[in-house]
């Protein structure tokens, strides 16, 4: 008898538990409901790290100028994390009204027709914006995303090392031959072969391997893709020349060792620890180099026979096509592209503003490093490899570069195999 | 009374068991089973979560069979799993046996051996990169003093995975230790006393009594370690990003890249399905080996 | 039997009569301690290095070769972390999430583990196979499906009974905890430990007429204290370090956890690593406390539980 009674009670307890559970679920739900009401402007920002202060200032200025817009922002640390958020939210219909993201992700969303054509929506004159940065938001004949700022690339060098090697820091290399002389002169090895200081540290991860190759490819007069972005063109004679030159620096001239300074998050950076005299630098190199006490200097990247080249890498605004508050989102982008905000953001975050007039603003030019990166940005090509499969192309090219460096394949074979692979992906669409 | 409970017993007990299981199974259903079924379904489509999906049949699987990079990743992952699982179990057992006795400061030592799991991954990665530093890192210092040449560790396609394995064992053996410690608590002291009276050596006590008595714990650890190693992601993402030359690219690393980097969720789901069966196979083989060892 | 006993008695008396042998345990102990200290240092070095970096000034971070002991004991990095705008809120969220996940794992996994270890019911093998099988589902492929499931929980967040129309459990603690509320790891662990407890304990109670829940609650659970302590530590630690679910399942600053804060701090190529390490060190403190608290039960649980016979 007693036994059965207890079992009954047990079941009753279970039912009670289920009831309590569903009650709490309901409660949680009502909290969730309170979140999604009234007309807000939901902005997912990627202004983290060293851009955090600049981003917060921008948002505060917008709130002050447009209190009625009810801006609500959330900050995400890295482009891949924001990407996880956007992909899930687009499917759950919880996407924000506006976000700012690394350009290649925006192309993926735009290619699937999920984004608003900003060329039509914005009243800002596109001609006032830097075309080389703008090119990264252009796909399928429309401007689906608009840059806030970009980083650009130059040769970062350690002035103390250059002086010590008897070179003139005011007269940096203007051709590949001069660059090679600098790299050799700056390299320091002990008799045992121990690398004390790399003359030029080529790359420390896949992205940088792609980057250094692309910069020298452009230096030889080549491009990653053909004009209509339908086929790779990096495996041609220019690509072979570029990769052969880089391989020569590493293998014949021994200006660095393969895998030198490889490591997470730039903490192992041989440049900041004064173990490399030259690197490919971007705006983001400035802060930590100065913190480390390096005599950091920037020079433009020479082409083979004179002239300079560079790369820009923008972060862009985009508005989902189904956004609930398109009007507010457009207002924010227009506000952020205004001359005052462009200058303020650039000076605080040390990034190249997209607005041409802001690039030449005295406040921007007064910063010795920012002005240098604005200058190198002007050497970047006016067109961009703006394809959704960009990040995959980076991986493939980085692999080819390293295969050639490790001697697993000849320069020609590595590049043409990579080109074939990129072609398959482009054809698949 | 007795006859009554005999007839009602099995029914009641069954219901009781289901009541015990229900909450956990409901959660597993929502958080794992449903997503797993969805993943298998997705593997037959070209779903991108951005465009309308199409049914593609077995295309993704055919593509996987021809995908050299995926095969390299399977090889890498198996190497990593074998390299991590057994040393971690062995070290964890040794540490547990050593720290199960009563002696001063044992709590301090236990905590220290558990610290690696607690150390933030990024901090751990930074330190290990320095330890492996080819020129002035302590690991090569040790190698040179032993008369072996310095090794390029993380920058060599042949050694990078080994370097990651060593780091993973360092990180995981503390977990194995506390699980073994818990297991050691319910081995009756009398068994040890009897063995000691029989004059058994320490090693033979460990091998003849402790290890067999921990069989079910070891089985648990082996499965968990196989599963975790096969799904390794964070450490590799931080330490090498899959390089050099793809030598540390693992299945989950590629899966993530394919899904979120390239928005090929269908293809990634096929990878995930294959991974599931590879882990299952390894776990079954591991179970077989353990059974044979026990017999 | 008696022969063996006398033999061992003999060896014991031999030892006692032979003075040198008294030193052998001492020597062994010294070697043992030496080995332990070495292992402890090797194990601890990365942790110490994290702490040491957290005290370094900006320039010292980039010194090469790195210094193990910081030049000064600057607390500035720690102050920078503590005064971050959202850190208090993030701490609360992390605690709610980690404790919620730990408690639900302790309850649900022990119940399910007990059923799988000790109860007879139809479909037992299938359920156990399913639990172990679900271990093998990689988390990275679940991200999108779990998001959609959490969003479509019926009657929550403005949803109708089919789960449409609202945001479900997104942006709630319930939603964050759900994917980690019961894990195959935990169920499997508890099952393995329950099978190890001698059946006699249970049988005598059953003869006394106790029913399943009483047996579980009064007898087996106290005996399984070491395993529960392990499960508690592992669940707390994995929830405390969890990053993906809090990121994916919430959309607002108010719901961010400390791990999200840490990610924000180390974002980009020019992060301030000394400040990152200070936050990483602070984040570790609660898990160490939980570990110290739980490890007592790992060791002393079964012995002192006093439910013998």
UniProtKB/TrEMBL annotation, chain A:
Q: Which GO terms describe its biological process?
A: maltodextrin transmembrane transport; maltose transport
Query: Is-annotated flag, keyword Signal?
Result: yes
What keywords were assigned to this record? Periplasm, Signal, Transport
Please list the GO terms describing molecular function.
maltose binding
Q: Which PROSITE patterns does the record match to this protein?
A: TAT (PS51318)
Any Pfam family? SBP_bac_8
One cellular component GO annotation, for this chain's record? ATP-binding cassette (ABC) transporter complex, substrate-binding subunit-containing
Keyword Signal carried by entry? yes
Say which domain of life the source belongs to.
Bacteria
Instruction: Write out the similarity annotation.
Output: Belongs to the bacterial solute-binding protein 1 family.
- This protein is called what? Sugar ABC transporter substrate-binding protein
Source organism of the structure = Devosia soli
UniProtKB/TrEMBL annotation, chain B:
| Mode of membrane association | Multi-pass membrane protein
Q: Which UniProt keywords apply?
A: Cell membrane, Membrane, Transmembrane, Transmembrane helix, Transport
Q: Which compartments is it annotated to reside in? A: Cell membrane
- List the GO terms this entry assigns under cellular component, sorted alphabetically: plasma membrane
Q: Which residues form the ABC transmembrane type-1 domain?
A: 74-286
One GO term of the biological process aspect: transmembrane transport
| Transmembrane spans | 78-99, 111-132, 265-285
The family annotation for this protein states: Belongs to the binding-protein-dependent transport system permease family.
What name appears for this protein in its UniProt entry? ABC transmembrane type-1 domain-containing protein
The organism's taxonomy opens as: Bacteria, Pseudomonadati, Pseudomonadota, Alphaproteobacteria, Hyphomicrobiales
